[in-house]
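User: Hand in any protein.

Assistant:
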Amino acid sequence: MKAKIKENLVEAGKKIKRFKVRLDYKTLITIKDMSALDLWKDRYPNAKVVGTIFV
């Protein structure tokens, strides 16, 4: 259900500003762009995007 809501927001012309990234089981950070994810992937190989923040 959350996926449908996010898709609707993107289709409505909303712009993604930040990405939520889970580094490990207890650490969650936000990044501005996906190029920063590559930097974090070097330090935390299991890092993955878990959400987005829209404007």
